[in-house]
Amino acid sequence: MRRPDETNADISPVRALRNGLLPALAASFALNLLMLALPLYSLQLYDRVLSSGHVETLLLLSGIGLFALLALGAFEAVRNSILARLAIRFEAQMTGPVVEAALERGVSGAQGLRDLGVVRQMMAGPAITALFDAPWLPLALIASAMLDPSLAIFGLASAVLLMALALLNARITRTSQARAGQAQIEAQVTADAIGRHADAIRSMGMAASFHHRIGSLQAEALLAQQQMSERGGLVMGVTRVVRLAVQGGIMGLGAWLVLQNELTPGGMMAASILLGKALAPVEQMVGVWRQVALGRESLERLRQLLDRAPMPARTSLPEPKGRLALEGVTLHAADGRPLLRNISLALAEGDCLAVVGASGAGKSTLCRVLTGIATPEAGCARLDGAALEHYPRDELGRSVGYLPQEPMLFAATVAQNIARMQPDAPAEGMVAAAKMAGAHEMILRLPQGYDTRLADGGAPLSGGQRQLLGLARALYGRPRLVVLDEPNANLDSQGD
């Protein structure tokens, strides 16, 4: 049986968005066509109704205009609904691949999830609608040119000026925005480390140092944000002045054309409404450019996180019995230092092997190879004759128990930690694993027993209690291969 790509790492965040934008673009096209209703109504009202005095014509035009506005509102609601659903579907679709990619790369997935949230907010906010409406400016310019070419020229020059201000806003705030984002990420990482290593920080008098570092990073981020807000605010002020001047200029140019008998009063009002509506998204882009820039940065980080060769589909293999072999395994560190050199061994079912060596000798690296976390540069690690990388990852994980040097317990109940965070795991298996690890009696003495909730890292348990829970998790499900990296760390003589 062939399995689908387990990590879905070939999913592109840009492609996931692009595939859902066509209906929103179609709604935007209809919406912007209907935006012509009010200028046309004004044109007919001034040039036909007022000159003829026909009430019937007024009622008919008003009815048509009201219908067009109702349709415009409907298309606006449809577009907003499409974008909101697309944003939610995008985050739901990409959460799994982002978490998988973070696991594969050995990095925190928190930043990836934050980036997904930023993109979702951009997709559901005013930034995306401004981007959708701005390209329809040529339609308004064509309609203005039908009234008088000078109106279209004036509108085009105004749009170019407003776009130049938007680009200026992006350029003068880019550096400050990047500096603020990087400082905030570093401050968040440092703050997260405090929770995981609170005892060590307090015991060694490092609290003031951490307080100073986080304060410095936060101050740097706030200063960068202040600079960004001040510079962006200056551009926004200039943009507002230009926008009002443009609106007045359109009216003035229209009045001059009326005085020259080149435009009717109705045409002047229509041109004012038409160009005002067309230039509004361009002006809005200046205000939402920061959100657009943040969304682009988040999309780029997501692309980099997911930009790797997709894991090929793997054929399900029979459940292994436990025959383990290493064949000339060699592995180097990133700086070129040899970690493992031509390691070979063979273990039959039920065999035990203890590896003893000094710190830095490569014991933990050997454990990572045995569990399939690290892939050898040369040689092969095999379980029941099959290379570890040939097993589907989830299936191999069910057959392997692993206790790293740091038990790495999660913010969940004791039972959920033992059951490897599996939903609806049978209680019998958790209790059996705890008894096998000698942790059952200890767990029963906890405030809520197996339902006791732990913080990230295992607080408030002691180091020995965390070690026992990590061992119970490694033994959960009676795996065929159990790899223990310094399993007696933090244990007393009885636990040892």
How would you sum up this structure, described in words?
With 496 residues, this protein is α+β, with helices and mostly antiparallel strands. The chain is built from 17 helices and six strands. The strands form two sheets. It has a four-stranded antiparallel β-sheet, covered by helices on one side. The two termini are 43 Å apart. The model is unreliable at 1-10 (pLDDT under 50).
Topology:
Elements: H1 13-18, H2 22-34, H3 37-52, H4 55-105, H5 110-124, H6 126-133, H7 137-147, H8 149-196, H9 198-203, H10 207-259, H11 265-306, E1 324-332, E2 338-347, H12 363-370, E3 378-383, E4 386-387, H13 393-398, E5 400-403, H14 414-418, H15 427-437, H16 440-444, H17 463-475, E6 481-484
Parallel strand pairs: 5-6
Antiparallel strand pairs: 1-2, 1-3, 3-4
Helix pairs in contact: 2-4, 3-4, 3-11, 4-5, 5-11, 6-11, 7-8, 7-11, 8-10, 8-11, 10-11, 15-17
Q: How many beta-strand segments?
A: 6
Largest sheet strand order: 2-1-3-4
Specify the number of helices.
17
Q: Strand pairing plus helix content: what structural class?
A: alpha+beta
Mean pLDDT comes to 79
Helix content: 55-70%
Q: What is the H-and-E element order?
A: HHHHHHHHHHHEEHEEHEHHHHE
